[in-house]
Design goal:
Strand order of the largest sheet: 3-4-5-6-7-8-9
Radius of gyration: 25 Å
Length: 592
């Protein structure tokens, strides 16, 4: 790009991609040298030719967008965020020619791989031209669970994982481990970078349900492999036999990935992950000449690809098997994390380094997947909260001043884990102790500068910022914020977790929603401070029948526009809508 700027679909400049000068310097003392090298490579951006007819937009955000040239247009794989997708397609049109989008493929159910789809193609264009929009089975369901139902808490924690509140500097956010952190335009040190806009995707019109399924899209043959419950609950790979090219979504990377991200998610199945890579090697390894993925860069040459995939597969298999072995020897999650190490043959591979996931966190995730959070010790059946325990802890050690002195002595000895434990308890026992907060903030900064993992670095630095500045003001979102566009059943699933029990105490409501176009029926009940709903063949006898599309139902809940209902039914939905509240944003994490 001539000006090196990232633009959203409105044409607004939202990011500055010109970071060569920053990354051309030697590794600063405040960045782990290995992470610095990772950041130097991932910041390289632009339109890259992967192979004949395969191109990638890389370095515009954390993920890659792949564009495959069909016979008449472009097949877009994983349109990331809107600015990435919009600016990327402008480059494609400029260098490869203006052609229509003739297919969209979502490889998996994470926001950085679908949010920008409407910067690539509109819902109306998909419908009018019957453009295939393809995803693995369960794609929308898993998005609902992760990005919508649990999304508010994950978004708050994602600020720590990705360092959204950090300036892009040598003492701030240098990258995201899987991809670059984009510097906001004209940002000064200390300013908050803009965060990516996560939006719901265009609903797929074709689900891939089994390995071996084939499709021809705009003249190119695609063969799909299911990879459910690996890096994402809904994930798939695909192979292009005409181009001898393999896409492995996000199951193969230039880093060790997460079995459980710091932002939170369902615990990933590292055994299934390993098995999926084994199957991909078996099915496609002998006939693949180019490998491309949703992050990092491509690889070429059949022998090198198979060696790389084998080592990545072995890393996840070792992680799984040895964590379970130690678990079966009676070690708890933290004990496994302190014990488990990769053999030199795996640790020496730079693409198994801990730029994103870490062996420490991943081994605890394996334990959690099998055993849960409880370690079997009855002392932990009914534990105190952190604040409750901290108060007793500080009293037992002799008070605030004594604990602060112990923490400083631990820091002087390099015993940082003990210092963090002491200071964290002191902060939670006495939220007004600024000395404790500032000492802990400085310690977190030093731990950040040492960390090879970008997620650990960003988490430490975000914590330091909040301790020094003080927590942000928590704000509650509108009850139905962010839910526009969901089908009726998924909308009901989502708002069920926003029902306030105190408001619903003693309330009994029942009605049937009938879609005026499809005729689909949803019976909705509120009882015992619970919202339940179900598909139905017939309306609920004796209860109101509301003829509403999903969009109309959402508008009724929010009061957006004139009501499509009779007065009594409108009042009924008004009572129903009043039972809900939005999630709390900016809740405290490193302070009580």
């Amino acid at each position: 790009m001539a000006d090196g700027k990232l633009r959203n679909p409105d044409g607004q400049v939202v990011g500055d991609l010109d970071s060569d000068a920053f990354f051309s310097q030697a590794s600063p003392d405040t960045v782990n040298p290995s992470l610095w090298r990772n950041a130097q490579l991932l910041q390289k951006h632009g339109l890259f030719k992967v192979a004949e007819r395969i191109y990638q937009i890389r370095g515009f955000s954390i993920s890659n967008m792949t564009v495959i040239v069909g016979d008449t247009g472009y097949i877009v794989v994983d349109p990331g965020y809107d600015a990435e997708a919009y600016t990327g397609m402008k480059l494609v049109y400029e260098h490869l020619g203006k052609k229509p989008v003739t297919g969209v493929i979502y490889t998996h159910s994470h926001t950085d791989h679908y949010s920008g789809v409407r910067a690539v193609i509109s819902d109306e264009d998909v419908a009018a031209r019957h453009v295939p929009v393809i995803a693995p089975e369960g794609f929308i369901k898993e998005i609902l669970g992760e990005a919508v139902i649990a999304g508010p808490a994950m978004i708050r924690r994602a600020a720590f994982q990705f360092g959204f509140g950090l300036p892009v500097t040598a003492t701030g956010n240098v990258n995201l481990g899987l991809g670059p952190q984009i510097k906001p335009v004209e940002a000064q040190p200390g300013q908050v970078p803009a965060t990516p806009r996560a939006r719901l995707p265009i609903i797929p019109n074709h689900d891939i349900k089994q390995t071996g399924e084939t499709l021809t899209i705009d003249g190119l043959r695609f063969e799909f492999q299911m990879a459910a419950n690996t890096e994402a609950p809904a994930e798939m790979f695909f192979y292009l036999p005409d181009l001898k090219a393999l896409c492995l979504a996000e199951d193969a990377n230039g880093t060790l990935h997460n079995a459980l991200p710091a932002r939170g998610a369902l615990v990933r199945d590292t055994k299934s992950w390993s098995n999926a890579l084994t199957e991909a090697i078996s099915r496609y390894g002998g006939r693949t000449e180019v490998l491309f993925t949703s992050h990092f860069w491509p690889r070429w040459g059949q022998e090198k690809i198979v060696d790389y995939l084998g080592n990545q597969r072995d890393a996840y298999e070792y992680l799984h098997d040895q964590s379970v072995r130690l678990m079966n020897d009676g070690l708890t999650g933290p004990e496994i994390a302190r014990t488990l190490q990769y053999p030199d043959s795996l640790a020496a591979k730079w693409y198994n380094h801990e730029y994103y996931g870490t062996l420490s966190h991943n081994s605890r995730a394996v334990y959690q997947r099998y055993m849960g959070y409880y370690d079997g010790n009855p002392a932990n059946l009914d534990p105190m909260t952190l604040t409750e325990g901290a108060n007793h802890y500080i009293d037992a050690l002799g008070g605030d001043a004594r604990v602060l002195a112990l923490a400083k002595a631990a820091i002087d000895k390099g015993d940082n884990r003990w210092a963090v434990e002491l200071l964290n308890k002191l902060v939670f026992a006495d939220p007004k102790n600024r000395n404790a907060q500032l000492v802990l903030a400085d310690l977190y900064a030093q731990l950040a500068y040492q960390a090879e993992s970008a997620t650990w670095r960003n988490g430490y630095l975000e914590a330091a910022v909040e301790l020094r500045r003080g927590p942000l003001e928590p704000k509650r979102a509108a009850p139905f914020a962010g839910l526009l566009g969901l089908p009726t059943d998924l909308l009901l699933d989502t708002i069920a977790v926003r029902l306030v029990p105190e408001r619903a105490k003693g309330v009994k409501l029942a009605f049937t929603i009938v879609d005026p176009v499809t005729g689909k029926k949803q019976i909705v009940r509120v009882r015992n401070s619970v919202l339940v709903h179900e598909d139905a063949e017939a309306p609920l006898v004796g209860a109101p029948i509301l003829k509403l599309s999903a969009a109309q139902f959402y508008a009724e809940l929010t009061g957006d526009g004139p009501s499509a209902l009779a007065t009594g039914d409108h009042a009924l939905l008004g009572r129903f809508a009043g039972l809900f509240d939005g999630p709390l944003g900016n809740f405290p994490i490193v302070t009580p």
